[in-house]
Amino acid sequence: MAKEKFYYDSDTLSYRKVERKKSKVFTYFMLFFSAAALFGFFSYVVVSQYIDSPKEKALKRENENLKYRYEYLNNRIGLAEKVMQNLADRDENIYRIHFEANPVSEAQRKAGFGGVNRYKKLEGFENSELITATAKKTDKLLKEI
Questions:
Q1: For every residue of 16-84, which 3-state class applies, written as one string?
Q2: Are 11 and 3 in contact (CB under 8 A)?
Q3: Mean pLDDT (the chain, rounded)
């Protein structure tokens, strides 16, 4: 049960009950509600900028893992390219001399491709340079093989 409030009326020398108007109660309620909503909104904006959600943390961790895997794959492709170069040198200097065969030109050995942007679908991402470089190295190595 709500307490009733009274005020002292000095004209009649008696206490009178304080009656609130509904419009004033509604105005106070709307002010409180809008202030609370505004505070909640600004709190959400500030918190979302500085604190990551568990889902964001998992995605960042997965992104870092993918970067590491692409770098590892790039290193492996680099080693395979060195092996291919070693095979090309042996072919040029040992086997071609023994079998008296004509040397293979550098253009044939590299078997290039061009003219079309094959990696357009890989562009526009945060790490698209790393992904595109890996795809190019892989394609180049497959053509050489």
A1: EECCCCHHHHHHHHHHHHHHHHHHHHHHHHHHHHHCCCHHHHHHHHHHHHHHHHHHHHHHHHHHHHHHH
A2: no
A3: 85
Here the tokens at position 112 are 């290039």
Length of the chain, please? 145
Q: Which amino acid is at 36?
A: A
Taking alpha carbons only, the member of 106, 110, 98 closest to residue 139 is 110
Residue matched to tokens 């590892």: 72
Distance CA 138, CA 17 (A): 88
Token pair belonging to 5 = 């409030």
Lookup: tokens for 49: 């900028």
For 9, the 3-state DSSP assignment is: strand
Domain spans, the chain: 6-50, 54-144
Q: Which residue has the higher pLDDT, 34 or 5?
A: 34
Tokens of 115: 């003219």
- Distance between CA 57 and CA 124 in Å, rounded? 22
Q: What is the pTM of this model?
A: 0.56
The string of pLDDT tens digits covering residues 72-130 is 998 999 898 898 888 888 877 776 677 677 777 776 667 666 667 788 887 888 888 88
